[in-house]
Amino acid sequence: MDQKTKTGYRGYVLKALENSSCEIGDILRVEKEDKVFEGILIPRSESGDDKHVVIKLKNGYNLGIKVTSETIIKRIGKGTKPSFAIPSIPKQNPNLPEVVILSTGGTIASRVDYRTGAVRSALSARDLYGVVPELSDIARIKTEIVFSLYSENITQTHWSQLAKKIEEHISQGVNGVVVAHGTDTMAYTAAALSFALQDLPVPVIFVGAQRSSDRPSSDAALNLIGAVKVASRASFAEVAIAMHENLSDEIIVINRGTKVRKCHTSRRDTFKPVNASPLAKVAKGKITVLAKDFKKRNPLRKMILKPKFSESAVLVKFYPGFDPKVIDWHVKNGVRGLILEGTGLGHVSKYCFESIENAIVNGVVVGLASQCIWGRVNMHVYDTGRDLLNIGVIPLEDMFPETALVKLMWVLGQTEQPEEAKKLLKTNIIGEFSSRTLPDEILTKGGCKDVK
Amino acid sequence: MDQKTKTGYRGYVLKALENSSCEIGDILRVEKEDKVFEGILIPRSESGDDKHVVIKLKNGYNLGIKVTSETIIKRIGKGTKPSFAIPSIPKQNPNLPEVVILSTGGTIASRVDYRTGAVRSALSARDLYGVVPELSDIARIKTEIVFSLYSENITQTHWSQLAKKIEEHISQGVNGVVVAHGTDTMAYTAAALSFALQDLPVPVIFVGAQRSSDRPSSDAALNLIGAVKVASRASFAEVAIAMHENLSDEIIVINRGTKVRKCHTSRRDTFKPVNASPLAKVAKGKITVLAKDFKKRNPLRKMILKPKFSESAVLVKFYPGFDPKVIDWHVKNGVRGLILEGTGLGHVSKYCFESIENAIVNGVVVGLASQCIWGRVNMHVYDTGRDLLNIGVIPLEDMFPETALVKLMWVLGQTEQPEEAKKLLKTNIIGEFSSRTLPDEILTKGGCKDVK
Lengths: 452, 452
Hints:
2 copies of one chain form a homodimer. The first copy, chain A, is an alpha/beta fold. Chain A has 3 domains: about 5-75, Roll (SH3 type barrels), CATH 2.30.30; about 100-305, L-asparaginase, N-terminal domain (Rossmann fold), CATH 3.40.50.1170; about 315-425, Rossmann fold. In chain A, about 25% of the residues lie in helices and about 20% in strands. Chain A has 13 helices and 21 strands. The first copy, chain A, has helices at about 10-20, 105-110, 125-130, 135-140, 155-170, 185-195, 220-235, 325-330, 355-360, 385-390, 400-415, 420-425, 440-445, and strands at about 25-30, 35-40, 50-55, 60-65, 70-75, 100-105, 140-145, 175-180, 195-200, 205, 240-245, 250-255, 260, 270-275, 280-285, 285-290, 305, 315, 335-340, 365-370, 395. In chain A, the strands form 5 sheets. Chain A has an 8-stranded mixed beta sheet, with helices on both faces. A 5-stranded antiparallel beta sheet of chain A has the order 4-3-2-1-5. A 4-stranded parallel beta sheet of chain A has the order 18-19-20-21, sandwiched between helices. In chain A, strand 15 and strand 16 form a beta hairpin. In chain A, helix 5 (about 155-170) crosses helix 6, helix 6 packs parallel to helix 11 (about 400-415) and helix 8 (about 325-330) runs parallel beside helix 9. Chain A is globular and about 75 Å long. Chain A starts with 10 loop residues before the first helix and ends in a 7-residue tail after the last helix. Chains A and B meet through strand 4, strand 18, helix 8, helix 11 and helix 13 of A and strand 4, helix 6, strand 18, helix 8 and helix 11 of B.
């Protein structure tokens, strides 16, 4: 097939580009209504529509502009035509810190090749530099494909595998680890690795993309640059997620692995902190640490690897009309731990009490987290909560249900003993419980403590 | 027992109050550090601590102030001592609209008696006027206790009962309905009644309290005033929830029953709109409608009552390591409908496909909503979504999982036929699907449409 035809443009847009003698790599000015955009013409993916022209702006961001009869497209500069050959690896600067990028799959890993328009299924260092050349100014990059999965297919086994792989690279002395991961279950994996990789000497930063790189407004490159920056240079050594902070294209926010959740199906700022402030931000290439307490980077620290996760922990979400026989079935099935996703301050209906008690009597560790997501369970306020405490349900503070489940899977991977497991589940291991904050009223009411 | 001792104050605070000759009902000035507070001394609940004095501020809000040796308490006015006798019902103004307040239980109904400090288990009109005398300026109030339950114990049967009761009152000509409800499952009930009460002539407004009225900073009175205001006077006739908009004590926000969720365990502004703007706000006694489209109040409209809900619909939340045998068990158990709470744009792991397909083959209606909560499922983007669509899973647009479940329960209450049920589930019945909004980029990028 002729390489030239692989620009991805068709129909009306192709004609408009041809009329202006624009080729891939050229610098374009696009005028539309009262707005003017300038950038490099980049190829479309084959699945793209025939209505938009896509240019790469100066800030590295791709933008799609709908072309109508009103739109004026001008070629204002001759760009370097990107070669469709594999890009060369830029010279590594030996003075830069070294970062390993581990790929597990997902949008960011599979589609990152936005300059050539080719879809690659995974990333090599060569691919990365070809796509995000800025990386060579930040760190020496090495890459490894650990697996290549849509993140909804990632399970406990993969968490263990990934944890061991990270430990391997850290013991070889890298200055930071970046994990490219699908966004769907990235927060689960980040929480899992927060428990599996303790006393880290260097940061482990998860990164993904909500929009694939062959689409305009992809967040892949900026997120990756932010993640590599943090992995190589941040003063903290924790497991965290690096993604867009808001809809602008300027700030990458770093949230702790156990305190972050995917909160929007499609927005680039989908990851939101839960019951915690962000750990740090990256803006204009500068890292600002926001957390007061954090684990400091210390390359000499000996990390502790605890990669085992149980497959015998389940999450059960309560709702009106919920059938407690689901709990009985799990118990019969040999489940060892159960997270109840209750309502409000930590409640489920009283008609569930018998099944829950039966589970606990049978040695199942039962923890409760709130489906509110934000806030802290407090099972002392109402009868329902007190009854559940009396039965032996463990209130899980301000952990939201997903982190609570991951912690339980990890806890049951550490011990076979229910009592030991309960103790571990209640222990604040790596900051998954925030310290009890003062009620919000204090902030707004000025010095008056709310009565509890 | 001597009524005088029932102020609820003890220990150090009691002594401080006695030293300043302060009695319940007196106007106090409390000076603490550089702050000064003035208000009426109100009694404490018996479960209160012995460190705080509670005063009712001018704005009707209760405030607890920790008393230390530094705190100065002065009596600056003699208040009317509240009688501990049952307050009298104020004269009803025949020119005011009539509102019925239906009580179902919860914090707002059981503890609303903040002036006397007594705990009542449910509300009579007399109790209400005693507690929130402002109501008599807004509407003629009648009350009825429908049931008295912590909301986690409310099920489909109660939804039906409540729907019928509301229809009864509306057919008798009330100008609005207020439902006092526990906050834990209020959003589920509000969603349920949104489907059960169609073509409403007048508003049906749910209201609750995050802090019981015997606590300082209770939101009960303000929420109730806002709810009655809206029920009696708003220009719309929809099912909605009225609660604090933020931590200030000034704005009540009205959110649609199908587009609102409890998002914090304890904050007063716990109810947040999901994929929708609020319907209206109430500030300084004024209602401002925010929604562009709404069902207009029309007392002549004949409402349609569809109070039946199935008990054969379940919600199953997907997570890493989720065991699809749960789905098989539900199918064997005769379930007729199932909401999958998937990840991201609408995914579950491929190892679940067989169980899901088996469910659908067995006539189970399977819908998918995203655990992201915000955003819209789009199952055309990735293989996983396309595979699920091919199996016959119904993508539920921008409904979050809880509303999706309630809708499925209602749908299966309307028809025994799976095909008919699928059709209903896909139909936008009362605005539970928002119209597809333009991507956010349009707002921030200026006129450029994002490519999909």
